[in-house]
Write a structure and sequence with these properties.
alpha/beta, 6-stranded parallel β-sheet, about 450 residues, binds uridine-5'-diphosphate-xylopyranose
Length: about 450
């Protein structure tokens, strides 16, 4: 813990697991570096302040109803329009109170997707730094949307795209790897993407949960495009000892995962998780279940309640499915993922390729099977399989035969062995970035100096 810096930071996370977790990790990190932390949150998925006694909390009222959950772009649009005045009032009051205290507010750090916070911060003369919880390659793709639209790479009603074509500006991404979301109002998504990128370009800097060496060409291009300081200081979770419990997610983990893993052979288990948002159909679920069973490898599978469309939990499984596997399969509702990934029994990770999962995985050197669902997951999959070459791609909707074949390829064949070697080399690289003189270590020092230099 470093000496207190006499400066307070206001953090405003987007209320989703994949965004709150990295923002909280950043909060802990900056706290250990001597900053005081205030978190503004909403009544939509709020954290329990008693679990974070060293942070100060303020709550805003969203008042969401079920009909607001039409799709992700609609939700993002509402996040940016419904609480503008409440947020301005809250921030104004915090600034006023701070002006009468010994501890000035240095800046606001808000999620990349909260584009409205830039103009609110500007109007209060408070610098804003954006936190991009996903990777640089996907961010570069989002920031290139206007030109992609002009060149006809983005789908429009009636357009016929060659989805296999490599996008000239963003190799090796193909048209089908662009960070798109299947939704009712694609124009709304386009608007949210452009606003988020533009407002980040107007910010006082962007923090990435990434590593310079991992995405160096993309970070170079982003620095040219954004013209504001960019700080890749990830992986955030590795600033804390593994399993230190410094981050308490919104969901409670099933601790039987670890006792079950303790009973498995080293390097034998396929860990399966599709993150906190993605859903699958009943038939996709059953193909996955049979693919795992037929691979004959042990598996630990996170099936969130509600993840299978039309089902509460795992009712579609044939009766006796797990029992017939003789203990070779374990299904839970939520796992302590960072601990699972670091467990010596885990040999492969079948993932939806969310950025947090990808980073957590890179740090443990576990080969991946990537099955992207939406948005940046397509970009991450392409980088895992074709740039870093630490995993295989598996299309959503694959049959049990393809699933079994992919698992066997990764765990039993030569190609899998090469992937394992590359994964372990990348793990070592990731480890070095936090050591003194390493890239994230240096960017973190730069970030702290930058924050202290900001004048509000
Ligand atoms: C979403 C999008 O899906 C993703 O593409 C984007 O990059 C961030 O927002 P999510 O689906 O939540 O993310 O996936 P991911 O980014 O991988 O984050 C999931 C987090 O939940 C990880 O930190 C993971 O460790 C944690 N997790 C997941 C658990 O702790 N237990 C679980 O069982 C599953």
């Amino acid at each position: 813990m470093e000496e207190r810096k006499g400066r307070r930071l206001i953090l405003f996370p987007l209320p989703a697991v994949g965004h709150i977790n990295p923002m909280l990790e950043l909060a802990h990190l900056l706290y250990t570096k001597g900053f005081s932390i205030t978190i503004i949150q909403t009544d939509f998925r709020s954290l329990n302040p008693s679990k974070y006694p060293h942070f100060t909390f303020h709550s805003l009222f969203y008042g969401f109803s079920r009909s607001d959950f039409e799709d992700i772009p609609t939700l993002l649009f509402l996040f940016n329009t419904r609480i503008v005045e409440a947020f301005r009032e809250c921030l104004g009051k915090l600034l006023h109170d701070a002006s009468e205290s010994e501890e000035p507010i240095a800046c606001l750090i808000s999620d990349f997707w909260y584009y409205f916070t830039q103009s609110v911060a500007d109007s209060l003369h408070l610098p804003r730094i954006a936190l991009r919880t996903a990777g640089s390659a996907s961010t570069l793709a989002l920031a290139t949307f206007p030109s992609l639209k002009d060149k006809g790479y983005l789908p429009t009603p009636g357009s016929q795209l060659n989805v296999e074509e490599v996008v000239a500006e963003l190799p090796p991404l193909r048209v089908k790897d662009l960070p798109l979301i299947n939704c009712k109002h694609p124009e709304k998504y386009y608007e949210v993407v452009c606003s988020s990128a533009n407002e980040s370009m107007a910010s006082s800097g962007v923090i990435f949960n990434s590593i310079e060496e991992l995405e160096s060409p993309e970070l170079t291009k982003l620095r040219q495009k954004f013209s504001v300081p960019i700080f890749p200081i990830g992986p955030f979770h590795k600033y804390f000892p593994s399993g230190s419990g410094s981050i308490d997610s919104l969901v409670t983990s099933d601790e039987t995962c670890i006792s079950w893993l303790n009973k498995q052979e080293p390097n034998s288990v396929v860990y399966v998780s599709f993150g906190s948002v993605a859903t699958i159909s009943e038939s996709e679920f059953l193909e996955a279940a049979w693919g795992l069973a037929n691979s004959e490898h042990p598996f630990l599978w996170v099936v969130r309640p509600g993840m299978i469309s039309g089902s509460e939990w795992v009712e579609p499984l044939p009766s006796g499915f797990l029992e017939n596997l003789g203990g070779r399969g374990h299904i839970v509702k939520w796992a302590p993922q960072q601990q699972v990934m670091a467990h010596p029994a885990v040999a492969a990770f079948w993932t939806h390729s969310g950025w947090n999962s990808t980073m957590e995985n890179i740090c443990e050197g576990v080969p991946m099977i990537c099955m992207p669902f939406f948005g940046d997951q397509f970009v991450n999959t392409r980088y895992v399989s074709h740039v870093w070459k630490i995993g295989l791609e598996l299309e959503k909707g694959s049959s049990r035969v393809e699933i079994e074949r992919t698992i066997r390829k990764l765990l039993e064949e030569n190609e899998g062995k090469e992937i394992r070697e590359r994964s372990s080399n990348l793990k070592e690289k990731a480890k070095r970035c936090h050591e003194q003189g390493g890239s994230s270590y240096c960017f973190l020092e730069d970030l702290i100096a930058h924050i202290l230099s900001l004048e509000s």
